[in-house]
Amino acid sequence: MLKTSLVCLSTSLVLGSLTPAYAQEFDTVLEGLLTPEELQIHQQVGSQQAEQLGQEACSALAAGSSVEDFATKVAESIAQENVPEAQLQARGLYSGKVIAVGVALFCPERFSQLQAL
To answer: What global pTM score does this model have?
Structure first.
């Protein structure tokens, strides 16, 4: 379920918001898309680590990985972090938004791979 949440990553909600946002800063765009619960997660994770995940997504896509494969690795990592069950879905959705914003801003030429989900 976490993988599905992460891969779907509220794609329909995020995609429309991101398309014109390429020139904006990562944190500003991301924070504008987060729910209050996801914003708390973002504050715990930190902007630098979130941005790094977005850049790692671009690197993985450039190396031939699919969005689904990269999201699966992120979901597996979250599952190993001893995150309470109640937070797993929120962490998955948060990570999905981080990936989507990262791809939109750091490697917009790969954005079509998100739209194919």
So the answer is: 0.79
